[in-house]
Write a structure and sequence with these properties.
Radius of gyration: 18 Å
Largest sheet: 7 strands, mixed
Helix content: 40-55%
Number of strands: 9
Strand order of the largest sheet: 3-2-1-4-5-9-7
Order of helices and strands: HHHEHEHEEHEEHHEHHHEE
């Protein structure tokens, strides 16, 4: 039985379940991950940059070992979970909306011998199906933007986090003083009316009882990442033929240009937030 979601969440679910989106992200976005990378150079490989983001985020955790329980909210194909499980031996739950992505993720877990450490759960992060104080680390990369109720997502994250646990996440955001009217093309692309902002996440996490440890703002990586995805898409269009529709590719290129423009004009930002449940 298919779960019932809000209209905005259902839009995201249908999008990521589509064959076009599944094949595009798998073949262009690095194969394992759907999040932004931290780049040493503008033309660096997306996969390598994406791995660097995971390692940078993990460096903020107080401890990650075989006794650590992590939940990745909106974990896509489960690439983060596999990276963490391989490196630290920790147990990871991936809570992700797209059944199509989850099927691919479970297959990769089995192929890489990691299904004993990783559980992939179909569901939305505004209703986490776990008890209070369950996880040592709540993790999310570039997923919360898709929620129509980001306050509830943060409250849910705080609820399932153990005392002294770490909330570590990234999200493409609008800058605090951004004129929202200039981001209408971006909002239209993701079918939402707004994005979060650094001030929003600071205020919301504080209200949820979480204490800010740091915000490592790396806005340049946002425009760099989307520019890299755009160039890889243009260079590999022939390889996508038969897997991804022409209409989808054209719309994706148009959307990527809006993200690049928003980043370069200082209206969009990105970085790593770290909060503790003290």
């Amino acid at each position: 039985m298919t779960k019932k979601y809000s209209e905005e969440v259902e839009i995201a679910r249908k999008y990521y379940n589509s064959s076009d989106a599944d094949n595009f992200y798998y073949r262009i976005w690095g194969g394992e991950d759907l999040h932004l990378g931290i780049y040493d150079s503008e033309d660096e490989d997306i996969y390598k940059a994406s791995r660097r983001t995971i390692d940078r985020m993990a460096s903020y955790a107080e401890k990650i070992d075989e006794n650590t329980k992590v939940i990745d909210l909106g974990g896509g194909f489960g690439g983060v979970a596999r990276h963490l499980a391989k490196k630290y031996g920790c147990k990871v739950v991936v809570l992700n909306l797209s059944e199509t992505e989850n099927q691919r993720g479970r297959k990769m877990n089995q192929e890489q011998g990691l299904d004993h450490l990783i559980d992939i759960i179909d569901g939305s992060f505004d209703d986490i199906p776990y008890d209070d104080n369950t996880f040592d680390i709540v993790w999310s990369e570039d997923a919360i933007l898709h929620s129509d109720n980001r306050v509830k997502v943060i409250n849910e994250a705080a609820r399932v986090l153990k005392p002294n646990g770490d909330l570590i996440f990234t999200d493409p955001m609008q800058t605090d003083n951004c004129d929202e009217s200039v981001l209408e093309p971006v909002y239209d692309r993701i079918k939402l009316s707004s994005l979060g902002s650094p001030a929003f996440y600071r205020e919301t996490c504080k209200a949820a009882g979480l204490t800010e440890q740091t915000f490592e703002e790396m806005a340049g990586n946002l425009s760099n990442h989307y520019a890299k995805v755009l160039s890889d898409t243009e260079a590999n269009e022939d390889k996508l033929d038969g897997y991804v529709s022409t209409e989808y590719i054209e719309n994706m290129k148009k959307g990527l240009r809006h993200w690049v423009k928003g980043g370069k004009e200082g209206n969009l930002t990105w970085g790593i937030f770290h909060f503790k449940n003290e």
